[in-house]
TrEMBL record:
Short name of one Pfam family: Glyco_hydro_7
The organism's taxonomic lineage, starting at the top: Eukaryota, environmental samples
InterPro entries: ConA-like_dom_sf, Glyco_hydro_7, Glyco_hydro_7_sf
Protein name: cellulose 1,4-beta-cellobiosidase (non-reducing end)
Keywords: Carbohydrate metabolism, Cellulose degradation, Glycosidase, Hydrolase, Polysaccharide degradation, Signal
PANTHER family linked: 1,4-BETA-D-GLUCAN CELLOBIOHYDROLASE B, GLYCOSIDE HYDROLASE FAMILY 7 PROTEIN
Biased segments, Low complexity type: 27-41
Length: 446
């Protein structure tokens, strides 16, 4: 029996043959000092969580709706021996289309066999590895069209400290690896990942009571996260989050820092982060339809990672629209100095002014973030709605019972907005388009 158990633990979830896996193209540009650039041919891969998971020798679902099959997946090892991850029909099933340097993510896509909501993809360096970016003393630039994103939606672009190969070389169960979008993690330590470290997250799995496609298991997938862009056409924020564990870390129990267990600040990751949201920081005329940055039109977003003495010390933001460089807003908050970028001092003063827990400082601040991303981070692009708090933390008043608490007003959307069933019904045709990605030394990409 021991020998059988050891063999099972060495098994990996397989890959299916029902749908070929052809990654949509997405080229980008590597720039050098002075502004010259070299085009890099790239592609994106869909996260494994979105994929059809079925039996190795047929088409019976291993995961159906928001539940694992009790027969096929009674435990992680048995699930791996019984199941495969299928290839993706990117445009037909998931509403993902790439052309040259542009990638469009659709929101609700009605396919032949299912209705898909949102997506999450990663930039590949080659067919089996994610592209790794090293941020310090570099800048990352892209153009985004948020004109079709209403309240409650989030077109996000960010970096996470995933394994370059999706865990394929580290975990025996993760052989599909980056080619099939395995290995995701972020600072929220998500419990909804179906596979973590290559193992099916079946133990303690609880189907969601308000999301017919999702549930949560015992394990969470934690890692440092740099949110370059979280936005719809009414609000936007950029936010670093630090974890005290390097790379991807499978948590359980206290380490996950689960809010439902009243342990949000007891885990390995800073879930709040230190955000710069212009509306929240006192300027309500900067980002939106017809405003200084007109979200009815595409905008180019520049994010600079400045190091001082070898340590990350500042994250700056610039915008380009209509041929003009537009500097970031300056904070206008009682009790705070004027800041136009994220520094440790900005974060410390913001947390104090808003009476928020300063987990960012506790977990290591910008120096800790720089250390955590030294090995390189993976680019994520996604479109999603929020089944937990309706995206109010981005574009409305949150918490909704906070009264006049400083920092609670984050955007112009109503507190009744963002309910997923409403968003999915009313804004099914929503989409976000990311294009013209550039990466290189400071002031070389715009």
């Amino acid at each position: 029996m021991l020998v059988i158990a050891l063999i099972l633990r060495g098994l990996s979830v397989g890959t299916g043959t029902q749908q070929s896996e052809t990654h949509p193209s997405l080229s980008w540009q590597q720039t050098s000092k002075g502004g010259s650039g070299q085009s890099v041919s790239g592609s994106v891969v869909l996260d494994s969580n979105w994929r059809w998971t079925h039996t190795t020798d047929g088409t019976t679902n291993c995961y159906d709706g928001n539940e694992w099959s009790s027969d096929l997946c009674p435990d992680a090892s048995t699930c791996s021996s019984n199941c495969v991850l299928e290839g993706a029909d990117y445009s037909g099933t998931y509403g993902i289309t790439g052309s040259g340097s542009s990638l469009k993510l659709g929101f609700v896509t009605k396919g032949s066999y299912s209705t898909n909501i949102g997506s999450r993809v990663y930039l590949l360096g080659d067919e089996s590895h994610y592209k790794l970016f090293k941020l310090e003393n570099n800048e990352f630039t892209f153009t985004v069209d948020d004109s079709n994103l209403e309240c409650g939606l989030n077109g996000a672009l960010y970096f996470v400290a995933m394994d370059e190969d999706g865990g394929a070389s580290k975990y025996s169960g993760a052989k599909p690896g980056a080619k099939y979008g395995m290995g995701y993690c972020d600072a929220q330590c998500p419990h909804d990942m179906k596979f973590i470290n290559g193992d099916a997250n079946v133990e303690g799995w609880k189907p969601s009571d308000n999301d017919e496609n999702a549930g949560t298991g015992k394990w969470g997938a934690c890692c440092t996260e740099m949110d370059i862009w979280e936005a719809n056409k009414y609000a936007t924020a950029y936010t670093p989050h630090i974890c005290t564990k390097n790379g991807e870390y499978r948590c359980e129990g206290t380490d996950c820092g689960d809010t439902k267990d009243n342990n949000r600040y007891g885990g390995v990751c800073d879930k709040d982060g230190c955000d710069f949201n212009s509306w929240r920081m006192g300027n309500q005329s900067f980002w939106g339809p017809g405003l200084i940055i007109d979200t009815g039109k595409p905008v180019t977003v520049v994010t600079q990672f400045l190091a001082d003495g070898g340590s990350l010390s500042e994250i700056r933001r610039k915008y380009v629209q209509g041929g003009k460089v537009i500097e970031n807003t300056v904070t206008k908050i009682s009790g705070m100095d004027e800041f136009d970028s994220i520094t440790d001092e900005f974060c410390n003063q913001q947390k104090k002014a808003f009476r928020d827990t300063n987990d960012f400082e506790k977990k290591g601040g910008l120096k800790g973030l720089g250390t955590a991303v030294d090995a390189g981070v993976v680019l994520v692009l996604s479109l999603w709605d929020d089944h937990d708090v309706n995206m109010l933390w981005l574009d409305s008043i949150y918490p909704t019972d906070s009264g006049s608490k400083a920092g609670a007003d984050r955007g112009p959307c109503a507190t009744s907005s963002g309910v997923p069933k409403d968003v999915e019904s009313n804004y099914a045709s929503a989409s976000v388009t990311f294009s013209d990605i550039k990466f290189g030394p400071i002031d070389s990409t715009y």
